[in-house]
Design brief:
Blueprint: E1 5-12, E2 18-26, E3 32-41, H1 44-56, H2 61-65, H3 67-89, E4 98-109, E5 114-118, H4 121-128, E6 132-134, H5 138-142, H6 152-161, E7 168-173, E8 176-182, E9 191-197, H7 200-208, H8 219-222, H9 228-239, H10 264-290, E10 296-300, H11 307-316, E11 322-325, H12 336-349, E12 370-372
Length: 375
């Protein structure tokens, strides 16, 4: 049995609002135990800079065009993460052996084998005096994969630890929605894919209308009336996009220009229906494709808090699925991703695979991540 390690996972999602941080203890194989979860909110300046930069960067060429802004923001984000690490290292009761540093994604383009996360692993290692694993996606991209989703191997360990009855589906609703189908506990049989937008379009609508960064509990959408004509046309347009050879999405793959002319509430309702329809239809199609016995879906990610979105996903799945949350099993759904990258860091450190042919499309099970020990 491998020696267990304490790993600090740092995750900043597509919303760009802050950093989820989790310390877990695990051997990278058989078990994991959560020691602590904390959330650290970005300053308004950092959040606004992330949002502006992501709006300006739509293709790989833009990375060079905005290199000055990228380098400046990367340093600020890394320093912020360093302060997060300090918050944990001050606690003498918890020893940190390793840091899993996801960074802030500003462009994910798997078709061109490119994924850019802001975060300087070497600087974070220097400042924290800890081993840091970063750049988790690149090795998978080089091996024919799409660099995402990377959490399925952790979803599987949750199912194992919590003795959840199989088969089961884990549905993560972050900025992008992705699912993991778990039929048994063999790594090579994991199945995962991005299925479409999660929170990203709803958040974008709220931001554009200067009403905050997200629709808390789906309250704004619940007050509006969906424009059926616009919704149906948007769904038709989405379905008629030429079939993509990739199963991993970036927020730039979607847009909300079709909402022009709608007021805040009706636009929020319409884009929530657009999102729920895509999630439900892709969820049913994927489950049907691989295993028609799966009827239980376990929700995690920030989107599970959007009551209106979840109600509409249930409606659009025609009550064919039973929905639960990771919280029902004692796992805080807000921190599944940060726990996942703590776990992936351990697996990377031990040279164990973190991605698989049926999760990212890589040719063979692949490890990933770069180890920085800059102290």
């Amino acid at each position: 049995m491998n020696k267990s390690l304490n790993s600090l996972g740092l995750m900043s999602g597509t919303s760009g609002d802050g950093v989820d941080a989790s310390v877990i203890n695990s051997d990278g194989k058989g078990y994991y135990k959560v020691l602590i979860n904390k959330y650290f909110k970005y300053s308004d300046e950092i959040s606004e800079n992330i949002y502006k930069l992501k709006r300006n960067i739509n293709k790989i060429d833009d990375i060079k065009k905005f290199s000055t802004e990228i380098n400046d923001l990367e340093r600020k984000i890394t320093l912020f993460h360093s302060n997060v690490v300090s918050n944990f290292t001050k606690n003498k009761d918890i020893k940190i052996d390793l840091i899993g540093f996801h960074g802030q994604t500003i462009l994910h383009n798997p078709k061109n084998k490119y994924s850019k996360q802001l975060g300087d692993g070497n600087l974070l290692s220097q400042l924290s005096k800890k081993k840091v694993i970063y750049n988790f996606r690149q090795n998978d991209l080089l091996r024919g994969g799409e660099g995402a989703p990377l959490s399925p191997i952790f979803h599987q360990i949750i199912v194992k630890e919590k003795k959840i009855h199989l088969p089961v589906c884990i549905l993560n609703i972050g900025g992008i929605s992705n699912l993991t189908l778990i039929k048994d506990l063999k790594e090579e049989n994991l199945i995962s894919t991005d299925i479409g937008p999660g929170n990203c379009l709803i958040d974008e609508w709220i931001r554009r209308n200067k009403k905050g960064n997200y629709d808390k509990n789906g309250e704004i959408a619940s007050q509006g009336k969906t424009n059926k004509l616009i919704l149906d046309q948007a769904l038709d347009d989405f379905e008629n996009i030429p079939a993509k050879s990739i199963n991993s999405f970036d927020v730039n793959d979607f847009e909300i220009n079709f909402l022009r002319g709608l007021d805040l509430e009706d636009g929020a309702s319409t884009i929530t229906d657009f999102t729920s329809n895509i999630i439900a239809s892709k969820l049913l199609a994927t489950i049907s494709k691989y295993n028609q016995k799966i009827c239980k879906v376990i929700l995690c990610g920030g989107g599970k808090k959007n009551k209106t979105l979840i109600e509409r996903i249930k409606r659009d799945s025609h009550n064919k699925l039973k929905f639960e949350t990771t919280d029902d099993y004692g796992v805080d759904g807000d921190f599944v991703e940060s726990q996942a990258f703590a776990y992936l860091a351990i697996r990377s450190f031990l040279k164990l695979p973190i991605s698989f042919p049926n999760t990212t499309g890589c040719e063979l099970p692949s490890t990933g991540g770069i180890l920085a020990k800059n102290f």
